[in-house]
Amino acid sequence: MTSLSDDPAEEQWLDDEAGRIVRPYVMTRGRTQPSRGQIDLITLVVTINPAIAAEPGIGPEHHTIVRLCERPLSVAEIAAHLDLPAGTVRVLLGDLVDRGFVAIQEPVREMDVLDLETYKAVLNGLRTL
């Protein structure tokens, strides 16, 4: 990586292969949490409106997420494809959900699926072995 200037206070950097580097907090405009609450790493994301108009606050990363999610992907997979921290991807996803470009499917919580009686039955079955 090389600096654009000799001034150490200069915040712009160039990567010899990738070009200008944008810090994740710039992509999220300083936000650290998505607008819709928690989004798990295993939450599935799918595009529901593939056409993104030029809107304020919608950057190239948003466009890439919409293209990637034409087939369902988890938040972890999106972060890996974009080579971004999961927290940054969560904030970007919150923007896209709020504007109706993607839908998310939260994972089913185990506690929602199985009740206490089911756990008791499994324990009793294990004890009989």
Overview of the structural elements:
The chain is an alpha+beta fold and 129 residues long. 40% of the residues lie in helices and 13% in strands. The protein contains six helices and six strands, in the order βββαβαβααβαα. The protein has helices spanning 24-27, 60-68, 75-82, 86-98, 110-113, 116-128; strands spanning 2-3, 13-15, 19-20, 44-47, 73-74, 102-105. Strands 1-2-3 form a three-stranded antiparallel β-sheet, with no helix packed on it. A three-stranded antiparallel β-sheet has the order 5-4-6. A hairpin with a 3-residue loop joins strand 2 (13-15) and strand 3 (19-20). Mean pLDDT is 77; it is low at 1-5 and 7-11.
Distance between the termini: 62 Å
H-E order: EEEHEHEHHEHH
In percent, how much strand structure appears in the residues?
A: 5-15%
Strand numbers in spatial order across the main sheet: 1-2-3
Question: How many extended strands?
Answer: 6
Tally of DSSP helical segments: 6
Low-confidence stretches: 1-5, 7-11
Average pLDDT, all residues = 77
Helix content: 25-40%
Radius of gyration: 20 Å
**Largest pleated sheet:** 3 strands, antiparallel
Which structural class do you get from the secondary structure elements? alpha+beta
Shape: elongated
